[in-house]
Design a protein that fits this description.
The protein has two domains: about 55 residues, Multidrug-efflux Transporter Regulator, Chain: A, Domain 2; about 60 residues. About 80% of the residues lie in helices and about 0% in strands. It has five helices and two strands. A two-stranded antiparallel ribbon has the order 1-2. Helix 1 crosses helix 2 and helix 4 packs antiparallel against helix 5. The radius of gyration is 42 Å and the shape is rod-shaped. The longest helix has about 50 residues. It is an all-alpha fold.
Length: about 160
């Protein structure tokens, strides 16, 4: 297509834009005037299309940012509710502090360790010259002792709840 040269008034009417917009585009270097003070139809059309594409891209980016913001707000509200639930449980003593759990299980482990270590001295005389069924009975008793130690904290916790 052959280029047409338009006055500022003709360009404004043809593209349905204001003269001030044309002057802004001239000032910003998006279009230029020829030596007769006319504007290239093709260059003005291309500049307006590029400006429209930039604006559409901005709108898409803005929409995407709005969507991300809404998703972040939803996530924030969910986490805030989760935190409130944990705080409620802590106030109602439904939660046990980690330090307390570590301390109590450490104490249990030491107790079980001492029981198991005591077997080396305790079991040989108990098992000496015993039949297999009696040995099994003695070992079952010793294992129950360890299980009793383990279940003591679990039972008291279950009773509290």
């Amino acid at each position: 297509m052959e280029d047409k040269w338009l006055s500022q008034n003709q360009a404004a009417k043809l593209f349905k834009i204001s003269r001030s917009k044309i002057q802004r585009m001239l000032r910003d270097g998006l279009i230029s005037l020829n030596k007769n003070g006319k504007i290239s139809y093709l260059k003005l059309k291309a500049a307006l299309e590029a400006e429209r594409e930039v604006e559409e891209t901005k709108q898409r980016s803005l929409s995407e940012l709005n969507m991300r913001l809404k998703m972040a707000q939803v996530k924030y509200r969910e986490e805030k509710a989760r935190l409130a639930e944990l705080e409620r449980k802590a106030k109602e003593r439904e939660l046990v502090p980690v330090e307390q759990v570590i301390k109590e299980w450490g104490e249990k482990a030491l107790t079980i360790k001492s029981i198991l270590l005591s077997w080396t001295n305790k079991l040989p005389p108990l098992l000496e010259r015993k039949r297999k069924s009696k040995i099994k009975e003695i070992l079952d008793e010793q294992v129950r002792e360890i299980l009793e130690v383990l279940s003591q904290g679990v039972e008291s916790t279950a009773k509290e709840n």
